[in-house]
Design goal:
Blueprint (H helix, E strand, L loop, with lengths): L2 H20 L8 H15 L16 H13 L3 H27 L2 H13 L2 H4 L6 H21 L2 H15 L3 H20 L6 H6 L1 H23 L3 H18 L20 H6 L3 H20 L4 H16 L1 H5 L3 H5 L3 H16 L5 H39 L2 E6 L2 E6 H17 L19
Antiparallel strand pairs: 1-2
Amino acid sequence: MGKNRELNFFILLSVLSFTIFLTTLNKYWAPFDEGIVTVGAERILAGEVPYRDFFIIMYPPGQIYALSLLYKLFGISLGIGRLYTCFIQTLLVMCVFLITKALTGRQWIAFISWAISLTSLGPRMGVVPFPIFPGVAFSLLSIFLFMRYIENGKARYVFYSGIWLGVGALFRHDIAAYAFLAVFASILMHTFAGDKTGAMFGKSFIGITGFIASFMLPVFSALLYLYFKSATKDLFDSLVLFPFIHEKTAAIPFPKPCLNPGMIFHKSIYFIKANQYYLPLVVYAFIALFLAISFIKKRKFGKTDIALSSLLIFGIFSFNQVKIRTDPAHLLTSIHPAVALFGFMLNGCLSGDYARGRKRYAFILLVVLVSALFLLLVLKNTDKFFKNVFRKPYKGRVVLTHFGRGSVYVPREERNDVVEAVSFIRKNTASGERIYVGNIVNWKDDF
């Protein structure tokens, strides 16, 4: 396929992604997380500084500053935050597309990875402005740029990789830290056990120092700003101390696997509902085995091996959030490295380059199994999409509700309580008065 046709196809997919995400704009209800970033952005517009004047639980400042800028330009509205998230999720799925295309060289396989990632985002969870979305999107962009550096040896790509990852750290520092470790370890592999094309970087450490310096540029700039605003103490408490408390109090037990294929036909496709958490682990285990065998045979890491390693390490580390809180929301925001690696597995199965004889049959069987699980996941996510975006509003199970900051669909059984609570607060508090609102559980059927 020519360069122009590839570019046109990329643009078409980008527009299609954004359009699909746009259909979910006001259909999902997540008052706690959305409320934190929305109110935080409002406080910034009022002249306050995060961590010094108000507390942001576990969130770096990037998302609320991005929202505050948008609110200043277009007015404070839930719709603006969600529209912005449509763009961010489009960036994320297109990064998965580009990474898979770089690994396989086949656009149609990259399309499959794109479809899996797309249905795991807006169609399943909506476009609520969770900071995890830009955190993952910029981390994947960083890994893609690192892969470009591995491919052509041009130093500017490793600088770009570091800068975008530093930007990602301003949205989710934990996710960016995982990607930083992944890229850093892969640069070391490229330096000491890679192809000879990386020899000059092995001697001068330009790749390593350039990556670290460019990563620290946005991070250090943000820290310096908060330091001069006297906000660093509570910043440390929020981003470092509190997550350890959260890990102990918010954990959800990891589910047991479902080994009964008959549950595929269960109303909720229970087979994949239970096994979706094991799907990335199967992919990561295979890629780890593949890399180990490859190194034993060649005694070095080739370009593809190093690219795979960066994704593998990032995927394994980011799976930590699934281990801590095992629910669809945390799985489907961290599954994307596994989706791109699955594209590599599928390509290897079709090309026959990575196994011979009985090993090839075993490999094909594994890929067929993983493909079937991903297909079930796509069906599950698509069913939730039609349920939340079309069936629930049509049946009146969610009701469009107008608030001062925009209109969203609220579960029917919660609507009156929510409206009465908002009305009571408005009547009995002064504008800007601080109150304790506690926590709220996501509606049981959101996911």
